[in-house]
Amino acid sequence: MAFLKMGLRSKAVTALVLVLLIILLPSSLIAWQVFQQVHKDLAVNYAENLAELNHYKIRAPVDRELILSQQLARASVTRSWFANEQDSQKAEDFFIEAREYLQSFHEHTYFVIHADSRNYYFNEANKSESKAPSYQLSENNPDDSWFFNTMASDAKYSINVNPDQQLGTTKVWFNVPVFAENEKKGLIGTGLDLTRFIHDLLQNQETGVTTLAVDTGGYIQAHPDESLIAYGSGAGIDNKGKQLFDLVSKVDKEVVQSLLSEDTRNGIHLADVMVNRIPHLIVVAFIPELNWYVTSMINLDVAEVVSDEWWYAILSGVVAVILLIIAALSIAVQRMLINPLIKLQSSANALARGHYNVNLPDNTTDEIGDLSRAFSQMVKTIQSHTNDLESKVSERTRLLENSNREIALMNKMVNDSIDYARLIQQAILPDLTIRRSLSGHCFVFWQPRDTVGGDFYVYHQEGSQHLLGVVDCAGHGVPGALMTMLARAALDHAIRENGLGSPAKLLQKMDDVLRGMLLDLDLPRGLATNMDAVLVVMDTQKQEVRFSGAKLSLYAWDGISLTEYKSAKRALVGRKKHHFEDTILEDCQGQNFYLTTDGLLDQPGGEHGYGLRFMDLEAAIRMANRQRLDQQESAIREFFQSWKTDSHKQRDDVCIIGFSMPTGQS
Predict the structure, then answer these.
(1) Whether the predicted pLDDT of 402 surpasses 90
(2) 390 to each of 353, 358, 395, 398, how far by Cα in Å?
(3) Per the database entry, which stretches of residues form a coiled coil (predicted)?
(4) What was the pLDDT predicted at 235?
(5) Architecture per CATH, 196-299
(6) Is residue 190 within 8 Å of residue 109, measured between CB atoms?
(7) DSSP code string of 374-387
(8) Do the domains 75-193 and 430-660 sit in the same CATH topology, yes or no?
(9) Model confidence over 566-606: pLDDT tens digits?
(10) Burial, 547: exposed, middle or buried (Cβ in 10 Å; 0-12, 13-18, 19+)?
(11) What are phi and psi of 532, to 5 degrees?
(12) pTM value?
């Protein structure tokens, strides 16, 4: 009877206490059993993750140095110098390229060995660059036997630990062959300090975890306790007691031996062993480049194997228990709390429909009665606030509609201006002129990234001379289009002064004129004003092509392969002025020529999302040449769309001109 006289809150608390007492006791017993099993599973996962981490600590720097060495060995300046070691210019080009790699190598060192002369070159960042050999290798010197063994091997590379008495260094060396003229001409590579491997392997030891490295014979190569390291094990020095087998109990030695067999050199392997009568979990991962096993021994009683996932599991269990409690409490509250609240439902529904003139019941003496009276007061407050809010919303809606109309009008004006700019830009392009003058011998593919763009093409004719070219101005959209106006004006001025005889003189004059234009402008610092360009003068009387370019090339298709004629490596209006020169191609009948801005070459696409390689461009030109030259625009356009696919947006403006030498013209 006393329970029935309690307030609603007291009834709910009493029911909750009873439910907790019933549920917590069996739940605790079950949770303990689950903890024992999960702890073992977490220990296994922890060991596997630790092995992968330690494996990465050693292999990552090894792979990085190997890739850099291979890139330097495959560089064109490297192969060119190895083909002719005595060429001083080729040597100078190589050492310029090697300086960039010197800063990238971890130890900031590299070596070069020419097989013909046996000259050994060595450079490091903290010393003056040496372009002379450090010494010559000899077959009679045992310390140099590694070089001749590597040259005799067919392996793509080799990694070894080799003390060099001449230089006084002991490092892990990466030896990469250099091929020139289809022959192995020598080696190139770098080194890593062996102590860095050991330091990276043993740092950040966690509680209960011992990390070490062993060779295939089980000899310890790295250990926090240096007295256990088997120094000189590869040279036959007696290292009794310094093998991994000596750290475990006698009954577990066979288990450890099986972990170091050839069958375990792929993946991660682990086993339960006893170390000093304490259960441990041992895990190994093989590193083929060093012929080492990275090994970790984990004390299951001490190591912190319980990760965040475990706490999440505990939290999930607690939540599940709480849900059970809530479910049980709901049954009790249904009769003690919900039923009285049903009496308020009809009044609450009326309030939800917007009827504020309702009277809530207040004839009870417990918390439900207090709630009814408070609800009645709340209805009056809501009615007052609703009237005020509706008035404010109406006013704000009116203001917002006015703002939207103004924004729409401004947006239309901007779009109309850009569309008009596109018409102006298209009007200055010589599309009809070039197609009429070179009918059947040319095509143009011009596709800006935005409505207007920074790429444009040019065409002029004086007698038997035809000037064709493409210009790529810095920027896109409206800024790029404005730059094209300046570039076009500069080119027209250059043609008026110099004629069409020399593309190089035209580029030189354009560079001077543009610098004069931009010199008087107060441009923001860092604003790009440079532009790439390539100009070609095709003389139908002399049957020759004369071209000059600034960072853009001329491509020629002879029916079999594509040839690239590179231009100057400096852009117009660059930081430093450049003297442009003409290149003359004779006997051009029967060849198709192509000019393109970098918008096509830099467009991400294909299978891996990279820009076009030369072989990709050659394949596109070969496919396009299945059609007549004046019909190749559609083929190039289809290739461009298929290359970038739907996964990549157009990155830059694209402008391509294809042309050939007309026959029978003068």
Answers:
(1) no
(2) 16, 21, 9, 13
(3) none
(4) 46
(5) 2-Layer Sandwich (3.30)
(6) yes
(7) HHHHHHHHHHHHHH
(8) no
(9) 999 999 998 888 999 999 999 888 899 999 999 899 999 88
(10) buried
(11) -95, 150
(12) 0.44
